[in-house]
Structure formats: C-alpha cells, structure tokens
Design brief:
Rossmann fold; 2 domains; about 30% helix; 6-stranded mixed beta sheet; alpha/beta; Alpha-Beta Plaits
C-alpha cells in the first residue's frame, strides 16, 4: 500500500510559539483518517504545510509523493479540500458553480456528483445565497468528490449543520469511501461521527502526534476505574498512566492509559476498599487523553 501523506520532524514556529513540534506521521492510501485535538493543537498548521501554503521551520512534508514546498499543479489538482465555512459565491446558481468547477477537472466524475448531491436535495437553479448551510455543505462535498481527488481534506465539515444535514453528509461520505479510491482526512470534534466513519484515529495535542491507530485500538488503551478510598486518592503523579479523575458521591472515577487488569490490584494496595472497572467509549477516552496532554507541558502519553 502506498503512502499518500508523510511528515518527518515537521516543526513550525511563530516567534516564541510552536504550532507544530517534531511531527512525524504516515498515512497510507485509502480509508478515512480522522484527526482530533483541542483548539490550537496544530491541525490547521499541518494542513497548510501539507498544501504548501506555509513553509515549515524545520522537517519535511510530502503529499502524494511530492515535497509539499514544491507541489506541481498536477498534484494540487489531485487534492480536494472542504472547510467549515463552505464558502461559495453568493450570486451564482448551484449549476453555474458546478459547471465552472467541472471545466477545471478532466477526471470529473458526474455520477458521484449526482449521487452525493442527491443526499441534500439541492435545487440546481437556486442561488447560493438561498441555500441552507447544509445544502452549501452538500454542494461543496459533491464538487470536491466529483473532482476524483486522490486525497480529500475535510476540516470540520459538519460544524454548524443540523442533525438531518449532518446525517446526509456522513452518508454521502461513506458512499464515496466505498465507491472511490479516495483517501479522506477528516478533522472533527464530533466523536459520534468519528466512531461511525473513521478507519484510523490520529490524535494531536500541542503540535505533537499522540496517537495513530484504529479507534478500537485507541479505546483499548484507556481503562476506567471506580474506587472507594478510605483516605483519599493517592497523589496523581504516582498513579501509573494517570489521565483524569473526578469524585462522584464519594467515589473516585479514574481514567488511565496503557494499564492492564492488575491496575485494580494496584488501587486496592493503595487504599481502595472497593474497585470496579467500567466500559469506556471513544468520546470519554479521547476527552481524557486530551485533558491530560493539554494540562501537562510537552507530555507524551
């Protein structure tokens, strides 16, 4: 399987601020790769450097086998991009925008465009100014996919969409992933979306890569324990793999990373009168992971 995105030691500094730090990542061709992280984690900086818009301070980035600092027009034409704003010329009709886009892409796939646009009931004679946010999102997605890109970058594409529009967007996305050989990079804060569509989960925080695995493998790294401690919880910095905890009705709810079943015995040896292990979903695991990394300088869990 070929690598379509590759970075090595990628770093970007703006004065004293480090937006991306020693970032090394490989994304194989195919599938949906979700990127999550807190605001300011470096996701937008990563996209700008991959697309050659921003020059790295050090390190390298390659997109579809070519150095991102010297992307040829042919390579740029193989990359689609949809952002959260879904910006389109307000005075143009939907069919006019589609026709304009089609003229630029010789590999245009009209059947995919028609299939995707069908999820959103966009009237081709309607001006963009009269389209809902969900319809604009659908039109943008349909055009991006009809370009037959090798890589499609979606930056918070469902932000601000209602439940129906979000559902339509995800259904269109999954249809395309099945029908086309497009590598999809999907950036979102919506864990239920990621659970539904993602093959790989990339976690970023403070400009660093924290995880690159399947969502199931990531969830398996995090365990959730509830303990009743006679004399309070041990010091956090002594708890192996500590991520977060909170106290509810006198019980301590603790999330830890990379600990096995014997962690329950550790809690008992450190004052827990009772111990129970609870199930963890993706949202809880990601939130715990990001909280730990956001509050700890340059931490690597």
């Amino acid at each position: 399987m070929q690598t379509c995105i590759e970075t090595h030691g990628l770093t970007k500094r703006y004065g004293k601020k480090t937006a991306l730090k020693d970032f090394t990542l490989e994304i194989q061709q195919g599938g949906i790769h979700a990127i999550v992280g807190s605001n300011g984690a470096g996701k937008s900086t990563l996209f700008r450097m991959l697309l050659g818009i921003t020059t790295p301070t050090s390190g390298s980035a390659r997109l579809l086998g070519q150095d991102s600092r010297m992307l040829a027009p042919e390579v740029r034409g193989r990359v689609g991009y949809v952002n959260e704003e879904h910006t389109l010329p307000l005075w143009m009709k939907a069919r006019q925008i589609t026709a304009q886009q089609k003229s630029f892409y010789p590999q245009w796939n009209q059947s995919i465009h028609d299939e995707v646009i069908g999820y959103f009931d966009v009237d081709p004679e309607q001006k963009v100014a009269g389209l809902s946010r969900g319809e604009r999102a659908g039109l943008n997605l349909a055009m991006a996919l009809a370009q037959a890109p090798d890589v499609l970058i979606l930056d918070e594409p469902t932000l601000g969409l209602d439940v129906v529009a979000r559902q339509s967007f995800l259904e269109a996305l999954m249809f395309t992933e099945r029908e086309a050989n497009t590598t999809i990079i999907y950036c979102s804060h919506q864990m239920e979306e990621i659970e539904r569509v993602a093959d790989q989960l990339i976690v970023m925080e403070k400009g660093m890569l924290k995880n690159n695995s399947s969502p199931d493998e990531f969830v398996a790294r995090v365990s959730y324990w509830v303990g009743d401690f006679a004399n309070g919880l041990p010091a956090k910095n002594t708890i192996p793999g500590y991520l977060t905890h909170r106290t509810i009705d006198g019980n301590h709810h603790i999330l830890v990373a990379d600990q096995g079943d014997d962690f329950g015995q550790y809690l008992k040896q450190n004052g827990a009168r009772t111990v129970a292990r609870n199930a963890v979903n993706l949202e809880r695991a990601v939130n715990a992971f990001l909280t730990k990394n956001h509050n700890t300088p340059d931490s690597r869990v």
